[in-house]
Design a protein that fits this description.
eight-stranded mixed beta sheet; three-stranded antiparallel beta sheet; 51% helix
């Protein structure tokens, strides 16, 4: 009897020792992975800073000799105050997220510890620690790998047989997007030309074609002759590095001529985000008369000064530093381009309370912690969005970026004249009003990049149809591009508005009558 009791005690002690070492090992794994994640997020966030610092020092070498020393000291002090304000926003939001997460996790850990000590569930605490360590490894190691692995499915792969090369210039390629379902391209139907943004890139408009989440394919899969303009690689194409607004407009004109010749119909021009502003300037220049007879603008900053969040950010920045030159880099061939990583970083700084590295790390932690399993299944949509945000940033032509910069710093005048000229001509909404083009404006109701007021600015000067979509800036090209989604682009909605694909289909039906 005594022998068996001794053996049982020995076994229990051995089991307890094993659990202790297991918990210790998992805690070590948890802490190590946690700090790795914090450092990785911080490093990724700060990487553009070092690039920006180099441009800042280069620009300041020229500026400092043109300013009195007292003015320079004053400007630098104001810049320091601005930086502290931005950092303060990030700190407050990060601290709040840390507090929310750890308050919940501490309560769960304490409850599990009490159950273990009280003998209600001897494995509760050990399982909790192991699960937290596994979830952290999902976020820090497996999630980044899933993001990298989505690359073959993300965006446009023009070599995969789903596209036809139609034309090209020194700067751009024109591709026809072919249907991926059982539809066929309908002959004689009104074609559409999509102009992607320079900043966000074209791939967001071909998000996940195989998952039926692609803005461009939402048109093509309805049988609409669908074309998209893609810029040539800017790092290897000198002509793409020095694109001007005039070059852009003339290339749009050339592509519209090719489409008109091929399909026998005038083109609907569809600009997305910055592409909407670029397309608008080409239309207002008069170069597209008799080639384009309808216009769709999606989440496009038509008057950037009405985007309150970004303007508020710029207004707090000392005037001396409101200079595009701080994001410019000079290539070995002497061409000046705007660093895409720095530009995307500026947008992060604008929303520092949501983009601070600690905040985003804990945001992922809270999202993953809702899962009750040891390992989290990572969706293709989440992976693709992050691939786009992390890896799909390209550099930008300086002249084109200057057009957008002017739009965000100089308002449209009271008579509808833009702060941009092409071919030496002023650009006014009066041309759109005179031509009476069918015009659809789509905006995101929760868009914090292009405010509703900015997207709807043309309504002060010209009549247009308006459709508001739930969610933010990229939802039209991602969530709602799926044909079975609530706000699928080919549908009419409860408020009587219609998606851009339905707008195009209805135009085609009117033409055929």
């Amino acid at each position: 009897m005594t022998s068996n009791s001794g053996k049982d005690a020995t076994d229990t002690s051995a089991t307890a020792d094993i659990k202790f070492f297991q918990i210790t090992a998992d805690l070590f794994r948890l802490y190590q992975t946690y700090w790795t994640g914090v450092l990785k997020h911080t490093n990724e966030f700060m990487l553009p800073y070092w690039i920006a610092l180099n441009s800042f020092l280069t620009t300041e070498k020229e500026k400092i000799v043109r300013h009195y020393p007292i003015d320079t000291i004053k400007d630098y002090f104001e810049l320091l105050q601005f930086n502290l304000q931005v950092a303060g926003k990030g700190f407050v939001s990060s601290f709040g997220m840390i507090n929310d997460y750890h308050a919940e996790q501490s309560a769960r850990a304490f409850d599990a510890l009490l159950k273990t000590i009280g003998g209600q569930d001897g494995d509760e605490f050990a399982n909790l620690v192991a699960r937290e360590a596994d979830l952290l490894e999902d976020i820090v190691y497996r999630y980044p790998q899933a993001i990298r692995d989505i690359q073959p499915e993300f965006g446009f792969h023009f070599e995969d047989g789903g596209y036809l090369k139609i034309a090209e210039t020194e700067r751009f390629m024109l591709y026809q997007v072919l249907p991926r379902n059982s539809s066929k391209v309908r002959q004689g139907v009104k074609p559409i030309l999509i102009i992607p943004p320079y900043v966000l890139g074209a791939n967001i408009l071909g998000f996940l074609p195989a998952e039926k989440k692609s803005y461009a394919h939402a048109y093509a899969d309805q049988g609409i002759p669908t074309y998209i303009r893609a810029i040539k690689p800017i790092d290897t194409t000198p002509a793409a590095q020095i694109i001007t607004g005039e070059d852009d407009a003339l290339d749009i004109r050339y592509f519209c001529e090719q489409i008109l010749q091929k399909d026998g119909r005038q083109v609907t021009l569809n600009g997305f985000c910055q592409g909407g502003l670029v397309a608008l300037t080409a239309l207002l220049s008069g170069e597209l008369d008799d080639l384009v007879d309808a216009f769709i603008a999606c989440v496009a900053p038509m008057d950037g000064t009405r985007s309150h969040a970004l303007i508020d950010y710029l207004q707090h920045l000392p005037p001396r530093f409101r200079d595009l030159g701080y994001a410019v880099k000079i290539l070995p061939n002497g061409n000046r381009i705007v660093d895409g990583k720095v530009m995307s970083w500026v947008y992060k700084l604008k929303s520092m309370e949501k983009e601070a590295p600690i905040y985003t790390f804990y945001r992922d932690l809270m999202l993953f912690s809702k899962n009750t399993k040891r390992s989290v299944a990572i969706s293709k949509t989440a992976a693709a969005i992050n691939y786009w945000l992390i890896y799909d940033r390209t550099d930008l032509p300086e002249a084109i970026t200057k057009m957008s910069f002017d739009s965000y710093t100089i308002p449209v005048t009271s008579d509808g004249t833009l702060p941009i000229k092409l071919f030496g001509r002023p650009l006014s909404f009066e041309r759109l009003r005179a031509r009476k083009l069918p015009f659809l404006i789509c905006y995101g109701k929760d868009d914090d990049l292009v405010d509703k007021e900015s997207a709807l600015a043309p309504l002060d000067f010209v009549e247009a149809e308006v459709t508001g979509f739930p969610k933010g800036h990229g939802a039209i090209a991602t969530s709602w591009s799926h044909p079975d989604s609530q706000y699928a682009l080919h549908k009419r909605y409860p408020d009587g508005s219609r998606g851009p694909v339905r707008f195009q289909l209805d135009l085609a039906e009117v033409e055929s009558v």
